[in-house]
């Protein structure tokens, strides 16, 4: 009976992925999600293309999408465990405590009810490892947040993005005007920044010569956007014509990116 119980436990607990070289970058990205709400549970969604951490506030949805090969030995859980709620602060606390003494981390999932996630940390130079648990619960599909359906976009580098974020960081409404030749950010306090395609300050696509796209955004929470500027090289703004939402795509690596939706 004891042998059967041990065997069932091994079947129930499954390694979902391993992180090695991207461990520090992963911790920084997860910590950035906590600036949206430290005690907020993130939605963890598993797909064949990788996994998504999703955090939603009243005006913002942020997705951290991570794909193989950053995720080693990636295994997509069955449908019963495809959508989970996970406690971000517990996750980040474990990472912070163990990252300096670890060369890899396994994310494991116990499929029994209630489900349980565990992190196993180890180092290639020694046989010792440490396992800690994180609270999770079953969830459901949160919808199509982060889907990019538009061909209208503008791309700017991190230097210009940081300049814009710092200039408008405390403004509740930032007006954005996009044409096929320039991008302008402004507000009611007589602040304005204009970037021109001709001067190679931005890249614009999908906008006709007589077209003018207008929308408004705000860079809140301030810590999220100010910290994001140090993690990226470029950002892409997409204006979805079928919705009022504006989507920012911000890669932090070849296999990891933030997708930020402003929900107007």
Automatic annotation (TrEMBL):
Gene3D superfamilies recorded: 3.70.10.10
Origin: domain of life: Eukaryota
Protein name, as recorded: Proliferating cell nuclear antigen
């Amino acid at each position: 009976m004891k042998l059967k119980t041990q065997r069932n436990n091994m079947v129930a607990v499954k390694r979902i992925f391993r992180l090695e070289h991207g461990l520090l970058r992963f911790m920084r990205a997860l910590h950035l999600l906590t600036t949206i709400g430290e005690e907020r549970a993130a939605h963890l969604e598993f797909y064949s293309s990788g996994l998504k951490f999703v955090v939603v506030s009243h005006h913002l949805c942020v997705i951290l999408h991570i794909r193989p090969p950053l995720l080693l030995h990636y295994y997509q859980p069955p449908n019963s465990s495809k959508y989970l709620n996970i406690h971000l602060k517990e996750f980040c606390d474990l990472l912070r405590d163990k990252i300096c003494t670890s060369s890899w981390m396994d994310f494991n999932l116990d499929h029994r009810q209630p489900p349980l996630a565990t992190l196993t940390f180890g180092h290639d130079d020694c046989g010792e490892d440490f396992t800690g648990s994180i609270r999770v619960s079953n969830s459901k599909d949160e919808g199509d947040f982060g889907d990019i359906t538009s061909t209208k976009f503008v791309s700017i580098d991190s230097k210009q993005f940081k300049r814009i974020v710092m200039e408008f960081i405390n403004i509740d409404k930032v007006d954005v005007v996009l044409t096929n030749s320039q991008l302008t950010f402004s507000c009611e306090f007589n602040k304005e920044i204009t970037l021109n395609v001709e001067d190679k300050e931005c890249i614009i696509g999908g906008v006709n010569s007589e077209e003018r796209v207008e929308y408004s955004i705000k860079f809140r929470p301030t810590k999220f956007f100010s910290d994001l500027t140090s993690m990226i090289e470029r950002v892409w703004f997409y204006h979805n014509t079928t919705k009022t939402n504006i989507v920012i795509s911000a890669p932090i690596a070849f296999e990891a990116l933030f997708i930020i939706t402003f929900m107007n």
